[in-house]
Amino acid sequence: MQVEYINPFIRSMTKTFDTMLGCEIKRGSLILASDFKANYDICGVIGLSGRAQGVVVVNLSRDVAMQAAATMLMMDPSEVTDLNEDVIDAVGEIANMVAGAAKAELDEFELSISLPNVVVGAPPDIRFPSEVHAIAIPFECPWGAMSIKVGFTPCSVPA
Amino acid sequence: MQVEYINPFIRSMTKTFDTMLGCEIKRGSLILASDFKANYDICGVIGLSGRAQGVVVVNLSRDVAMQAAATMLMMDPSEVTDLNEDVIDAVGEIANMVAGAAKAELDEFELSISLPNVVVGAPPDIRFPSEVHAIAIPFECPWGAMSIKVGFTPCSVPA
């Protein structure tokens, strides 16, 4: 994928954490997703389609997911004690916001966004078809570590 | 979600395995995805969007994934020895075929399909936002066990 398509996703991730969660995040360097080996505890995943096909994986460490859920639910972080349904919903909504803000910047592709899904595991390892060449970006914030992985392929005919 | 939306996905799963892989599959009963606890080794996941938002998770046991990959690659199954890049690509392509055939039956929703992603884990556990009420269907075939989970929500305004 062309690196230029990644910038709207970096901006949307930064904006989602800053505006919606009041949490300043700092990005690391771009790396091919196939070379990025850090997997955190929980992933919000969402598809994009239209004049391009895409997928965004927002991968959060447990602490980031629980603090983000507490902030969205206006709860004390000590009240969010495990990766329960509230945290699953919060992580799905973060993926939705990240994809939604990136979609708005990529309007030439007339994108629409799918339902999110949320992957928990030990930790989950999300791969892409080999021809996609997805890109990963690590982020750090006061709550902990996270990353996004983005695959994005323009289509000559809408998918 | 309404149960009627699940039928195109059941037919597309059956058709993909029968036509593309020469493997006859037998479906079990519908169950709410949140109550379906069997997780197999590898998942192909793909989003749908348009006048509905959806997500399809095709969850295959290791044996099914490896036999399917061998069939698609016209290799002897003994040559496919682990969940390598060829198997990842094959599982992504199965998700793509299942979503593509269901999309064709659900043309009133003007759906487009995202890039697939493939989740491996120990095994991966894929959840949906709590308001989606996704449905799971177990399947059996001579190669082993598998399932699909589908979330599908019509939208008043295209997503």
UniProtKB/TrEMBL annotation, chains A, B:
List the EC numbers from the record. Answer: 3.-.-.-
UniProt keyword annotations, A-Z: Chemotaxis, Hydrolase
For the keyword Lipid metabolism, the answer is no
Broadest EC class?
hydrolase
Instruction: Show the InterPro entries listed in the entry.
Output: CheC-like_sf (IPR028976), CheX-like (IPR038756), CheX-like_dom (IPR028051)
Q: Does the keyword Calcium apply?
A: no
| Protein name from the UniProt record | CheY-P phosphatase CheX
Which gene is annotated as encoding this protein in its UniProt record? cheX
Gene Ontology biological process terms, A to Z: chemotaxis
A GO molecular-function annotation? hydrolase activity
**What SUPFAM superfamilies does the entry give?**
CheC-like (SSF103039)
* Span of domain Chemotaxis phosphatase CheX-like: 42-140
